[in-house]
Predict the structure of Integral membrane protein.
Amino acid sequence: MILAVVQATLLVVGSLVLAVLQRGQDRTLTMTFVLFSATIVAGVGPLYRAVDPLLGGRNVLTLVCDVLMVLGTSTLLWGVAKAVGAARGWMRSVVVASCSVVVVLVVLAFVTLDPVPTTTTFMLAIGAQPTAAVYSIAQTTYLGLALGATGVICVLRVREARTGPDRVGLWVLVAGGVFGVVRMVVVAVMDVAHVAGRLDVTHALALPYDVTTPGAVLLVASGMLLLVVGHRVWHGRRSAALAGALRRLEPLHARLGTDNEYPDSDDPATRLSRLIVEVNDGARRHRTPLDAEDRAALAEAEAVLAAT
């Protein structure tokens, strides 16, 4: 239970941190954290035993937690894809469709199970039922494949990482994907063994399960945090570079630039692009050669704009 409390605390704190860091930005990863947090918090022993009886005392809360984990893993895959620029329309359609199928399958499997009273060891209590294997393997396979796909996306995008936290976060997410795939295999074997009456196999795989289950969650959560921190660091550097380039180019623009009557913009990159164009237009119009300092300021502004 101590580990569950630690996980829950870290995820809740992480959700709050992400809510602050992603203010005004896409919050898909924040939503992932919230879903993961709700899953882990609801599964903490004392809270689970207090809440589940209110839902009928048949472990409906387990179903809720498992569905939330499936939804959270789906938003993780889509959120990471968007964060690293790998998101595609077809990918979103695949994620939504596969997530929907898994949720329906899990719910149908759950309602056909022979119910047991509230317990924090749900799969141990009902694992001998064949439908329990379907219930568990369906969601675990989806979680493993989704985490594995997230890891593959991160591997393909590591070279494009713009900051240290970005790069470390991507590799941590890759590690989380590996843990998720290993957990998928372990759980599938345990479920089949339980149905077959081979409890010796389930006991032998208890340690890998106990390691990979929290390990995958903590690695993925840490990777998401690092990814968002890395993006904030990059945006901070970008803003500082744009502000510096604007500051150094404005005197040259005041002296040579033309007013092309572009619409006003609060975006520093748009403003810098406008100044560069108007300085070049002014220099050509007035046929005024730029001295070395002017050329250096203009080249620096173009380099900063190209880097952003």
